[in-house]
Amino acid sequence: MRRGPEDDARIRRATEREGRRARRRRARELMQNVPKHNDGMSSDDEVTEQQNLAFKQAKEEIDEESRDIFSDVMDDFCTVRGILAKLESWRETDMEAYTEAYVSLCIPKIISPIVRLQLITWNPLMESTDLERTKWYNGLLLYGLDKKETEESLRRDPDVRLIPLAIEKIVIPKLTSIVEKIWDPMSTSQTLRLVGTVRRLIIDYPNLNEKSKQLQLLFTAILEKIKSAIDNDVFMPIFPKILDPKHPFFQRQFTMAVKLLRNILSWQGLLGDNQLKSLAITSLLNRYLLAGLRFSLPVDALHKANMIMTTIPRAWLHGSAVQDLNMFATLINQLSDKLDQANPAHHEAWEYSQSILRSIKSL
């Protein structure tokens, strides 16, 4: 069968990844007193240097093209500040008519095409860019500014919620699109940046709550993307214990599944606990990770179980929530029964098993 360009590119990327892993392994072997590394946890596996370069080049091209879109349009009609200046003139001359026309509710729709163009390369998964430093945000911030304003006048100001509305109507849908098309739940760096962005927006803008339709659409997209990662990106190869209990491919796949579990649980406090438990415990832990533990030797399995336990939120170890971990606790009991307490090589695994069981049964 003839190989095509895509096959050559795939082989080249795989070779680059293996080369980096080999260099990291050699470096770790030369270093002493460093924490044990688990193959599959490295963020360097997520994006290659070649992919980074291609991304930067594409971004620069898009930035350049986007600047030409309104090149033949006057600033009064293609900048947020220019458009707001005309509306502000109306606001100053006839506030009553301005208010009755619900202009404040229309502004996010009016400026949406311009803001979306300025956000075209905004990607909080790759880099941190404060929205508060953008030109369109500053334009909204200064809109209707009155040096003589008082607390009472602010209460009557129809535009007091202008920025929160713009964030909800423009930024959140953009973020939803990024989640659907770009975010990789297997990537720890992307996940932590996304979690930080969503958390910061919810804290800064109180209108982003359970009543916000756009926020709920964002959460739905996040849950669907996680579910897709569990269904399509997790693979637990099963090797007979007698054949190769520590096959490198199995070890790597198991560690990557634990990494996904950790990434999923980083959403704790943002997404609903019931939804997270269904994905993290029922779909990932019980379906894949426990299978991997069953086909590992007891000592190795308990080391893996301890790695899993460090990712479980402490809040899930209290009250009725702990019932979701019954299958995990049962397997830990079975594994600990297979240990030889007289064997020094089993002591650490025994301690892990008892620590896990104490945590789960601390009710």
UniProtKB/TrEMBL annotation:
Biased composition (Basic and acidic residues): 1-19
Gene Ontology biological process terms in this record: mRNA splicing, via spliceosome
InterPro entries with a match to the protein in the record: GCFC2-like, GCFC_dom
Keywords: Nucleus
Family per similarity comment: Belongs to the GCF family.
PANTHER family: GC-RICH SEQUENCE DNA-BINDING FACTOR (PTHR12214), LD29489P (PTHR12214:SF0)
Name listed for the protein in its UniProt record: GCF C-terminal domain-containing protein
Organism: Cotesia glomerata
